[in-house]
Amino acid sequence: MAEVSSAEEKIALIYENLAEVLKDDIIKDVVLSQKRSLKIYWGSATTGRPHCGYFVPMVKIAQFLRAGCTIKILLADIHGFLDNLKAPIELVKYRAEYYRFVITSLLKSLNIPIDRLQIVLGSSHQLTPEYTMDLFRLCSVVTEHDSKKAGAEVVKQVSNPTLSGLLYPLMQALDEQYLDVDVQFGGIDQRKIFVLATEQLPKINYKERAHLMNYMVPGLSGGKMSASDPDSKIDLLDAPEVVERKLKKAHCVPKEVDGNGVIGFVEYVLLPVSSLKNEGKGKFVVERRKTEDGEALVYEDISVLKEDYKADRLTPQLLKPAVTKAFVELLRPIRTEYDSSPEWQEVLTKAYPPPVATKKDKKVKDRGTRFPGAKREVEAKPDGHVEGPAKEATSLATGAEAALQNLEIRKKNS
Q1: Average pLDDT, stretch 71-90?
Q2: Residue 298 phi, psi (nearest 5)
Q3: Closest-CA residue to 191 (of 152, 141, 142, 139)
Q4: Which of 184, 100, 195, 185 is CA-nearest to residue 146?
Q5: Hey, is 286 helix, strand or coil?
Q6: Kind and range of the H or E element at 121?
Q7: What mean pLDDT is predicted for residues 349-365?
Q8: Residue 158: its pLDDT value, please?
Q9: What is the reported pTM?
Q10: In angstroms, rounded to a whole number, what is the distance separating the alpha carbons of residues 68 and 10?
Q11: Contact between 131 and 123 (Cβ < 8 Å)
């Protein structure tokens, strides 16, 4: 993966296919004026299992490396359980190990040289006395309202939130200082946290950083892709038959492009990955049967694909099998490495243990007292008297005697 040479080319490559850039003057100062390597960090809270949406930042990281940037990947293990205990404290260690396996394998599958980047565990610096003191300082200048607002699109929102959700964005901001970077890179959903970092770090005498944001891949079921909704995502270890099943069920309305997760996968994952692997010449191929003109549809520009989809030349029945085939091939090297690694398989079991099946107590069905063999409270005998635990309450003799006795008492009292 050859680096680009001129400073202008580096800037263009850094900005390519991004949703938004904040404080680009910082980036230009480092690259154009200081003429040094731009230091960038990308982080992920180690919560649910990584999905195919992770290809988006990894492709961008490959471009950053081509632009001569220095890259740090943060595995934010502490953030994992701060976010409403998405990662229980006893599982945090194993989930961080699992993320390391997955992200390393994903990078290798894209031919990204992993020796040119650094993977950092959040707890390696977030548990130091210095970091803790700086976090307290940040707490003293950031309001509850601002912290809650910053984490609104990232931290899980519940009716009665814990204080940990307020610490989450503050720590993400503070990580910029402790990782010693010029830029933080993340999804467009991180924007409010990035703004908080820009506004608040100077208040505790730390410099502001630039921020780069990539587009988010829509979920297969419509809306945002979620690690907690298995049908909205394709897991990086999904078997071919699982990929096929999920894409068959995917939300893919004919002629509708907006919010279409299947087209989103082509736009933000498949075409960029193809471009990365083929020296900037990405393409996506849709095979057609002879009854459908036979000739394959080849797309190098997503806008052309979208126009064909709107015109119904490209239908869901053609698109879904093509995306399935492309994803199966994309995931094959990751799945192969996992299958050959007992250590990775063991970590997966520890990080995401299967739920314990609870045995339900069998309810004894009340079939009443009339079925044969039922135990009755009372039983009438041929001579008219009754037997059983409730015979006193139902005995006619007892009832008559009591009634006569009550009558005698009333007569005396009157």
Answers
A1: 86
A2: -115, 120
A3: 152
A4: 195
A5: strand
A6: strand 117-121
A7: 77
A8: 75
A9: 0.82
A10: 7
A11: no
